[in-house]
Amino acid sequence: MILTVSLNPCIDRTIEIEKFLYGGTNKVLKTREDVSGKGINVSIALQNLGVSNKATGFSFSEDEARLRRFFERIHCPYHFHTVQGSLRVNVKIFDTEKRVMSEFNDKGQEVTEADVSAFFSLMEKEWEGTDILVVDGSVPPGVPRSIYKELILLAKEKGIKTVLDATGDLLALALEAQPYFVKPNREELEAFYGKAFKDTKEMISFGKSLLQKGIHYLCISLGEEGALFLTAEKCYQAKPVKILVQGVQGAGDSMVAGACLAMKKGLSDEDIFRYAVACATGSLLHPGTQLCEKEDLEAMLQKVEIINLEE
Questions:
Q1: What digits encode the pLDDT tens for the residues 31-73?
Q2: Dihedral (Cα; 125, 131, 135, 140), 10-degree rounding
Q3: How many CA within 13 A on the CB side of residue 287?
Q4: 30, containing H or E segment
Q5: What pLDDT is recorded for position 291?
């Protein structure tokens, strides 16, 4: 089973505008709200793909019923520790003319040290039967920045493969635990590196240095330029598939779901990358925080072009 962790779940309010006017009055074309958060998004995508998984993390008391109804509706098992407060609300403004998303993400409500301890106690009941642990996204105030590192170390002790998608200190500290699969985007990797990469060659060189520290797979999302996939022996690049982008929110989470599916299937390195890119591309076909569907994956697998840069 795949276990996803969402410590800072949210409501994504996506607003579509024909042409975003900064500082001006914007007429809204469409608005939608989705229960979200990176770990939750991975669970949604896995459910869409027909992959057995379970969601865990923090639930917030004022919206506990809403979160429960959501997981029941998508038929996804869940086990959350409830804390005081309400779900944070993130506002996403999608410019339909430029196909560009602007995001305004709330930090979330503070949780206590006792809540963090209770979450670790909850996790002790979830390790059995877990093959892959997905830790990603932000954490609310009050949660130590080392929490992903601690979770990865605990999972590795039990022989569980770990997938990491995080930023800043959460990423830097978690890398010390040598997660199995890491999925930063270019901007996140540059922030970790401390400067912009001058070209793809420099990015690959830095990526290889991370692999030498014990990471098995490094998948770097390049947005409109596609993606890179590095192992100790190989380096692959995927060109972007030409589609009409309907929304970009959650594409990275679909990428993680696709990689998890391929790893569960025991597929080759190249096919793990192919599934990841196909799912990310499939997610772009949907507005708001709607994610890749099984038929999207099947269609995009035929269109993803993988180049072996080592040849």
A1: 989 899 999 999 999 999 999 999 999 999 999 999 999 999 9
A2: -10
A3: 14
A4: strand 28-36
A5: 86
Cα torsion through 271, 272, 277, 283, rounded to 10: 120
How many domains are there within the chain? 1
Q: What is the pLDDT of residues 101-117, one digit of tens each?
A: 888 999 999 999 999 99
From the number of C-beta atoms within 10 Å of its C-beta (0-12, 13-18, 19+), residue 131 rates as middle
Q: How far apart are CA 288 and CA 16, in angstroms?
A: 9
Residues 186-200 pLDDT 10s: 999 999 888 899 888
Residue ranges making up the domain that contains 77: 2-308
Q: What are phi and psi of 128, to 5 degrees?
A: -65, 130
Alpha helices in the chain (DSSP H): 38-49, 64-73, 113-124, 147-157, 168-175, 186-193, 200-211, 251-265, 269-283, 294-301
Distance CA 62, CA 213 (A): 42
Enumerate residues 6+ apart whose C-beta is below 8 A from 135: 5, 39, 148, 151, 152, 162, 163, 164, 165, 166, 174, 179
Report pLDDT for 239: 87
Predicted confidence (pLDDT) per residue in 161-215, tens digit: 999 999 999 999 999 999 999 999 999 999 988 889 988 899 999 999 999 989 9
Point out the least confidently predicted range of 151-160, 172-181, 245-254.
245-254
**Burial class of 193 by CB neighbour count within 10 A (0 to 12, 13 to 18, 19+):** middle
> Is 59 strand, coil or helix?
strand
What CATH number does residue 173 fall under?
3.40.1190.20
